[in-house]
Every structure is written in C-alpha cells, then in structure tokens.
Design goal:
The complex is a heterodimer of chains A (343) and B (403). Chain A has 343 residues and is mainly α. Chain A is built from 14 helices and two strands. Chain B has two domains: 232 residues, Response regulator (Rossmann fold, 3-Layer(aba) Sandwich); 147 residues, Rossmann fold, CATH 3.40.50.2300. Chain B contains twelve helices and 14 strands. In chain B, strand 13 and strand 14 form a beta hairpin. Chain B starts with a helix and ends in a 5-residue tail after the last strand. Classes of the chains: A mainly alpha (343), B alpha/beta (403).
C-alpha cells in the first residue's frame, strides 16, 4: 500500500496539469512529454549501454516525418501513426547499430554526428515526400466531443498516456535481464562475455530500442507542433537531447522528464531575459547546472533521499538502490552517476 | 490517502476545469486605450540581421503613441525571437496569441516561418498582417487564408520587372541564374523564367545553393563559363556578397542583376568593396536613407529623428530599419481604417486600402481590393549602383503577381 501512494499522487498531479494552466503552457508540457520519450531512448543507449550517440535527432526526425507523411498523404488517424513510427525507428536503429558494433567512444560519436549533420539535407533531398524546405503542415489531433475537453487538454492527456506506457516499459526493461546485461557490458565487456552475455546482440538491441523511443517521441512531437521542416531537426536537436540526458541523470528513468523540462523551458525563459543573449544565458545555465548537480537531477534526488534516510528513523538500509524506494518516480538499478566510458 | 488522491484526480477529470474564457464579443488584445500586436523576428541565428526591422517598426509605433495613438489607443508591440526556425515560430505564435493575447500578428518574418504558422492563425482567426517576406503565396489564396497578407512587392512582381528591363535594354541577353534552393529562390527565378516566355532573352544556365552552404564561388564559376552575358543573382545578403566578390575576381563581366533582398549598400556592397559593385542593377521601393536625393525629404527627416529618439544605437542608414518603419506606417493606416476594434474589421481595412506611405518611393502606393487583389505593394523602380550610391532609373513600374 505504502508503495502505491507516491505513484497515485504523481498520477493525480500529472493528470491535473492541463486544468490549471493556460493552453500555451499546456502545449509546452505536451512537448515536454514528447521530448521525454526521446530523451529516455537516448538514456537507454548512453546511460545504460554506455554507447555514445550524437545522432539521436535523426531517429527523432524519422519518426516525425513518418507520422507527418502518413497523416497528410495517407490519411492515417494521428495516433495510429505512433506504432508505425516506433517500428521504423527500431529498424533504423538496428541498421545503425550494426556498424556501431565495430566502433566505440569517439569514433562512434563521429559516426552518429555525421548522421545528425546529414539529416536536414536528406530531408530536403526527398522533397517530393517531405515537402522540402517548405515543410509539412500537419493537422493536429482534436478532442472528441464526448470528452468535453479542449483540444490542448486532450492532446496533453493523450501524449501523457503514450509517455507513461513508454516509461513503464523502459523501467521494466532495465530492471530485467536485458538491463542487467546492458549494464554489465557497459561496466566490463570482458566480464560480461565471460558470464555468457553476447555484447553484439545487446549493443544492437540498445541502438534499436533507443531509436524506437526517438521515433515515438518524434511522432508525439508532430501532434504537438503540427508542423515539420528540415530546420526542425538540426544538430541542435541531437545535442539538446544529450544535454537533457546528462541534466536529468545518466542511467536513470525519471531523469528524462527533468531533462525534457530543462530543454523546453530554459531556452524560453532565457529568451524572456534578453532576446539577444538567449544563447549565452542558456549555455551559462547549462554549465552552472553541471557544476551544481554533476549527477544530474536524479543524482541530486538520490543524495537527498540518502541523507533523509540517515537522519530518519535509522532505516539506513534504504540508501541502496532497491528500485522500490520512497521516491516518486521509478528509477532503475544503475550505478548513480555511472558515466560513459570512453573506448 | 490513496482514495483521496484518486478522488481528487477523478473530480478534476469530471469537472474538466478552466471554463470558457471570456465569452464577450470583444476580441482579445484591444481595450479602450491600448491595442497589442505581436511580431516574430530572428534576433538570434544566421539571419539575425533582419532583427533590425523590429527596431524601425518600434520607432514608428513610438511616434504614433507620442501623438496619442490610434483613436486614443496606444500601440503595444511585443516581439519574440524564433532564430529563423519555423518550429520556434510555431511556438512563438502560440505564445503571442494564447499567452500574451495579442490582437493581431504583424510583420512576422521569413517565408518558412510564416508558412509554418498561417494554418494556425487562420484557424484561430487571428490577423497575420504584412508578413515580412516577398513570397507570392501570401496573397495568392485569400479564400483559404483570409487572415494572412503580405506587404512588400512579392518576388514574382520583382522578377517580372527584371524581365521587362532586359527585354528593353538587352533584348538578346543570355542569362545565367544563381538562386537559393528554397521557396524564396524558386519563387523569384521561376517567376523570371515565366515572364521571359515568348521573348528573345534566354536563360542559358542555372545554379542553386543551400542556405547552409559555406560558399557560392563554385556555382558562380560554372555560370561564368556557361556563355551567359547576364547574371541574375537571386540570393540572401551573405551570399549576395560572396557572388559579387566571385564575379569581381573572375574575367566574367556580365550585366549583373542583384535581387532587392541582397541590395543593401551597408551590409552587402560595402564589405565587398563598393568599386566591385559598380554597374549592378537592382530594384527599390522605399527611399534609400543614403541617397542624397532624399536628404531634405520630410518623411526621411522624420524617420531619422524618431529613430535616433527611440533607439540611439540604431544605424539610420540600415535599410532594414526603413523597412520596419514603412511596414509599421502601413499597419497604422490599416488600424486607422477599422470601422470597429475587431479582428474582422482590421482584415476588412487591410483588404481595401489605397494609401500613400511617405517613406515609400513616389508612385509606390499601398493598394488592395477585396478578394481580387491581395498584394499591398506591386510596384518597384530599377536602380543602378554608380560606385558610390544607388541611382534610381526611369519610372516606377507596376507588375502584378497574378498570372
């Protein structure tokens, strides 16, 4: 019973959001949901399997365009495009994962960087399908009359539902056999091999799964923005996903939410402070953040929880990550602050 | 505890809060003594030079407000940065409409950004007035996008004026075109080729570039060996300068036609060296602040004085400031023409105008008529660079974008 309470409170808060904020704010939170799914996918890859990717934005773009084209050209209902985007994302990630087997560290970073650089150009090249530089205007899902909801409220709740499913699946994945295998490979590949884990298989799987999440995130992004263009998917997108992973906390599940909140809200507020200096302010906040919270938001929460437990009623054992702690958001058994190993 | 939180959630879902926002007939953003409009500009990123347009526009609205506003309403002009990225423009437009509750969007900048938001503005019935782009789409389908209108002479109009010029001045010209591979470049170069049909002026070579390309030198080189004796340079400022420099370095001496977008003396010609720009032909539609001809012009003096007052750091010779000033002047006239302070009345006023704006060239007037003519400005004048300044040539010419 005690374990359920925090989750119920969290669920109530998340469901209540669209009824307490203006439609513009609700739109921002909807976008956070889309980003969070993509960031979670990158964290599975970077945080848990220890492989670096600077090209996550490419899979995000793929998912977004798959969804946008199916809606505008093939007349798909919006939400029906999500599984398609997921499958296409998985396939693309699998293909990318094959060469990635031979490369590690910096070399893998450069390979994926190349992909991110090429993405906007590729989109322009296939302008018959993608609308080229003009982009595609996509009809956003509208609220069915029976719900009595405004469109933005409905879209938020739908995005929330998709996100929750993706988060629960990820949490289960990393806590099970796959998660243990990924962490084992990340921490010591030889030892993992000795225990019968096949690194090639799991590394490819990590790429494919990360890309699947990016694909779903991309589709959710389209619902929320209603527009895609090559400029939507520049290098900056890939980099901000990576920043979000680190800000939220490497090898955590809940961190993706904080990371997504960061990349959505900090640039907007930076622009409010001074339009001309927005980029500088964003950069400075990012640097300050890394100094203050080197383990990301989740790392800081863990420390707080550890301290609280020490000063609590002597229940010192709860310091260990047992996966079912008192924290509101599920996090997995990865090492706190477990870093990416350079090859 | 659990039960309580679930009940809370359930009651919220059932109640589905928020309620109808003000159901009065009054449109948002307008009160007895103020009217709020919103603009979206690239204050950051590769196209940040365009940000000066907002400075010029703000200066004009300051002047209007000092004189008591429009029908007693002071104009509040809110701007948001989109870095010339359409997805950011989408969010910026929602912020302005839903959060800041603007009455209308004014002069939002960039072809891709405006195409990204115009379905939204028309669905919400928010005027998206005098967009800062010359793409001929804005004005071609008034029925589908009744709340959106362009302002500056569109690229097809400009292309037709170059075609007419060549047919008169160089009837057997062989033209090489350099164009930016996007809506803007295709609109202008396509309009030019359409306008040439049936004449002896021939397009012999075409080269394109991407906005993300580092240089256009190799494209210019190809054009120079194509046998073309005329160069139509359809580029944005950074690339205009590169192309002028590349031609100056080569042995190619074509008749150089540079599109209006890239014809800034301060931003484009001066960095390359004014002597390299001698003889270049372009078009103009507002008065050039550096042209001695307008030194004692009342509109020009008013502009320079007010700009200095509103933003002492702004450069009055920067044409983007004049552009913003002229667009804001047109907006002010449109607001004055409203029969009542509603969004629909603003659109009615915008669609039925016949007004002179003093900072525009004499003969370039704001003219629209209902659903048949959605382009406010459709006249330009040929100008040629004499090595020091742009010199206006001949008469103002009108050319309609309608095919």
């Amino acid at each position: 019973m005690k374990r359920v309470v925090p989750y119920a409170v969290l669920a109530a808060v998340l469901v209540a959001v669209p009824f307490f904020f203006s439609s513009y704010r609700v739109g921002q939170f909807t976008l956070v949901g889309a980003y969070a799914v993509a960031v979670l996918g990158l964290n599975l890859l970077v945080g848990y399997s220890g492989q670096i990717s600077l090209g996550h934005g490419a899979s995000f773009a793929l998912g977004a365009y798959v969804s946008a084209i199916l809606i505008t050209d093939a007349g798909f209902p919006a939400f029906a495009t999500v599984p398609v985007a997921a499958v296409v994302g998985f396939g693309a990630g699998f293909l990318l994962g094959l060469p990635a087997l031979r490369l590690r560290g910096l070399y893998l970073a450069i390979l994926t960087l190349g992909l991110a650089v090429a993405t906007p150009q590729l989109i322009k090249r296939f302008d018959g399908l993608t609308g080229g530089t003009q982009g595609l205007n996509v009809d956003q899902p509208t609220a069915p009359a029976w719900t009595g909801l405004a469109d933005d409220q409905f879209l938020y709740l739908a995005t929330l539902a998709f996100s929750v499913v993706m988060f629960v699946l990820a949490a289960r994945l990393v806590r099970g056999r796959v998660g243990r295998a990924l962490i084992a490979i990340r921490d010591n590949e030889t030892a993992a091999r000795a225990q019968g884990v096949d690194p090639a298989r799991y590394k490819t799987l990590a790429f494919a799964t990360g890309s699947l999440y990016a694909g779903v995130g991309g589709a959710l992004y389209v619902f929320s923005i209603g527009f895609v263009a090559p400029e939507s998917f520049t290098l900056v997108v890939s980099f901000s996903f990576l920043a979000a992973v680190v800000v939220g906390g490497l090898a955590t599940i809940g961190g993706a939410v904080f990371g997504a909140l960061f990349i959505e809200f900090v640039p907007v507020y930076a622009g409010d402070v001074d339009e001309a200096l927005a980029g500088v302010i964003y950069g400075a906040v990012l640097i300050a953040f890394m100094y203050a919270l080197p383990g990301g938001v989740m790392g800081a929460l863990r420390k707080l929880r550890g301290k609280a437990n020490q000063f609590g009623r002597g229940r010192g054992h709860a310091q260990q990550t047992d996966g079912g702690g008192a924290g509101g958001i599920a996090d997995a058994g990865g090492e706190p602050g477990g870093g990416v190993r350079a090859g | 505890m659990l039960a309580a939180s679930l009940t809370l959630a359930a009651s919220l879902v059932a109640g589905c809060g928020r309620g109808e926002e003000d159901s009065s007939s009054q449109d948002p953003g307008v009160t007895k003594d103020s009217i709020t409009i919103g603009g979206i500009y690239p204050f950051s990123g590769p196209a940040s030079a365009y940000g000066d347009i907002a400075t010029g526009a703000k200066a004009y609205f300051d002047m209007v407000n000092d004189k008591g506003g429009v029908d007693g309403r002071k104009i509040e002009f809110k701007t948001v940065d989109d870095g010339y990225e359409p997805p950011k423009a989408v969010q910026a437009s929602r912020k302005l409409v839903e959060q800041d509750k603007v009455f209308a969007l004014f002069n939002t900048l960039g072809t891709p950004s405006n195409l990204a938001i115009w379905d939204y503005t028309n669905q919400e019935k928010v005027p998206q007035v005098y967009v800062a782009t010359g793409a001929s789409e804005f004005g071609a389908d008034i029925k589908k996008h009744p709340y959106t209108t362009g302002w500056q002479p569109n690229y097809v109009t400009e292309a037709k004026i170059y075609a007419d010029y060549l047919e008169k001045e160089k009837p057997n010209a062989k033209v090489g075109i350099l164009y930016q591979n996007d809506g803007f470049g295709k609109d202008l170069s396509g309009g030019f080729e359409d306008a040439l049909k049936g004449s002896d002026v021939k397009v012999v070579a075409k080269e394109s570039y991407e906005v993300t390309d580092p240089s256009v030198a190799s494209q210019v080189k190809k054009l120079s060996t194509s046998g073309a004796d005329t160069f139509l340079n359809v580029t944005t400022p950074k690339f205009s300068a590169q192309a002028i420099a590349a031609v100056a370095k080569s042995d190619w001496k074509p008749l150089h036609i540079l599109n209006n977008v890239g014809a800034s003396k301060t931003n484009v010609l001066a960095p390359v060296g004014l002597e390299n720009a001698k003889g270049i032909v372009s078009t103009a539609y507002f008065k050039d602040p550096e042209d001695p001809e307008w030194e004692n012009d009342a509109a020009m003096k008013e502009y320079k004085a007010q700009l200095k007052k509103s933003d002492p750091k702004a450069n009055p010779n920067e044409p983007f400031n004049v552009y913003g000033w002229a667009a804001a002047a047109t907006m002010t006239e449109a607001l004055k023409g409203m029969k009542e302070p509603t969004r629909d009345a603003l659109m009615k006023s915008v669609r039925n105008m016949d007004t002179k704006i003093p900072i525009l060239l004499p003969g370039v007037d704001v003219k629209t008529s209902g659903e048949t003519d959605g382009y406010p400005l459709e006249a330009m004048q040929i100008q040629q660079f004499d090595g020091k300044n742009w010199q206006l040539q001949g008469e103002v010419q009108e050319a309609s974008a309608e095919k």
